[in-house]
UniProtKB/TrEMBL annotation:
InterPro entries: Asn_synthase, Asn_synthetase_domain, GATase_2_dom, Ntn_hydrolases_N, Rossmann-like_a/b/a_fold. PANTHER family: ASPARAGINE SYNTHETASE DOMAIN-CONTAINING PROTEIN 1 (PTHR45937). This is Asparagine synthase. SUPFAM superfamilies: Adenine nucleotide alpha hydrolases-like, N-terminal nucleophile aminohydrolases (Ntn hydrolases). Keywords: Amino-acid biosynthesis, Asparagine biosynthesis, Glutamine amidotransferase.
Amino acid sequence: MCGIALIVSGIRIDTSWLPFDSTSSTRKTEKLLFSLDDLKAALRRRGPDSVCAKKLLLQSEENLISSFTDDGVSSSERDNADGIHTAKLHFFGATLQLRGINPLVQPLVDASGNFLVYNGEIFGGFDLESNCNDTEFLMRTLGECCSCGSCSAGHCVECGKSSVVGVLCTIKGPWAIIYWQDSSRTLWFGRDGFGRRSLLVHWPTEDDSTFLLSSVSPVSPVQLATEDETLNRIGCFGYWEELPCGIYSLHVDVSKSSGYLVAQVKMHEYANSMLTELIKWDRISVEPSSEDLKTCSHKLSKGQLSMHLASSESVPNETGSVQSSIPGPAHILLDALKESVLRRTSLYTVYQAVTSGIRQEEFVPVAILFSGGLDSMILAALLDKCLDPNYEIDLLNVSFDGHLAPDRQSAKAGLSELRRVAPSRKWRLVEIDADLSDLVFETSHVVSLINPANTYMDLNIGMALWLASGGNGWVSDANISDNDHARIKYKSNAKILLVGSGADEQCAGYGRHRTSYRRGSWLGLHEEMRLDMQRIWRRNLGRDDRCIADNGKEARFPFLDEDVIRLLLNMPLWEVANLDQPIGVGDKKILREVAKLLGLYEAAVLPKRAIQFGSRIARESNRKNFGSNRAANQASAGSVRINNRKSSFC
Ligand SMILES: NC(=O)C[C@H](N)C(=O)O
């Protein structure tokens, strides 16, 4: 994952056009809460391959704006002298390079003076060669876009060129971007429609005109030093917000009356009807008839069938003519998930494989955040089908209660099942054992990573993800035996991590889905699931991205692939889940069928367990911060804000 940021000063920015409240916490100061070195350090952890910053200066002179890159000699900055006003756009880019064959340093600046910092992956929408770096591709493609500033569709009606909005909406895959289009004097920024990459914003206010964007909230090392200072820092919550998913522009102009540089932030509609449909997340078939429930899994709509037939392999029969067997919904989903895993792991050359000098037999390109539960087992079995058979696969499992944690036990059982279904693959279960009381500094660090999320539940999940993705643990010593006592230290170097996010939201895996079904039947369930999908960026993905990326790793979410989302949404809800059936059967019903198709019969019946409970971090944190599990439950510990209590981790 990369780290990107931008600091804008010297422009009077009007945010009143935004369709949501953009009043960041007001502080009567123009001073940043952190140094630029703090910012760079936080970004570097996300993008360790290269870190660079570039400054763009804009100057107003009689209704004209001139721009130039600051080369460190800023003699030409003459703010307010002779009615000249100067604005600064300070771009930061730290790159975790996973694609291409030549090294890449962000920010990219092209010959036309356009600037780009980008944290994302193009998995579809454009045809990219397997050796092509997607950041470079995007820079070229954006450089060819129309700059008239008034085209709101995918293409400009005047010149026929693609618009910036059009290009961004075409990307299939996760992205967060900051792009300066010099010819139109417009800053573009945004995140993909599901928020699969973090981007935080500090909107300018009347008292604090600075406008900031950053993948992560920086922390100055001194702030970590003492209890009071840590609490102070927690008091800074509210400075950053998750940028609501979307595409924004900020066109810079010179005010006729004052001569100041001014700009309005606008949010743009996605110029892609498929994407708009997905984001609306409307399902056609929500309520089954009793007949539907009887024939469930046998009927497919024409649309689903044609979508599948287009992508599935046709099998010649004995007479040589080509036939397609009619697949059930689970088969279709299985194919789509496999495609999704393939795009995320095997279609594009992994950059480090070419350059980093790691011996090929030691190179592990992909790991899985692994609890041994239904979602991670499906990902593991599919990865086995997509990845070169020579590569080992690391299964990263975190426990705060040694071998007793439920997730550790299911991980071991899962490993045995995977060895059964894929015996020739080398699977490596990485046991990451943690003790919360030893992790004082680390906890403090994760508090800053989850910002602006700020509850104990966020912290527990963030901690578990941060440690798991760090990959620092123990593996069984194959030379001795496969038992608990013969373990050796091991650190996973895989840069790509498959994560099961999005499976519970789309397939009714959460306990609250049962509550909404009880209360509101199928429609109630549908509404709850839609709510989950529409707020996943705010509640989960930004936080998870920041905690995982801090280890210099990139999370990839096969269940949140556009084609997978579309397929699941096109299915009747009763094919996806049936909450009249018991736990472990009707929740995520379709994924359980997928698991069976993959031969994963034990995983197919496992109940859902959230990472904070499965790893037992919630229990440890409850004891530590609330005295006991019981006291924590009484206080609804998960939703308590960290800054509402004097934290004992400080
Ligand atoms: N800019 C980035 O997010 C990294 C780029 N997608 C790469 O793999 O190299």
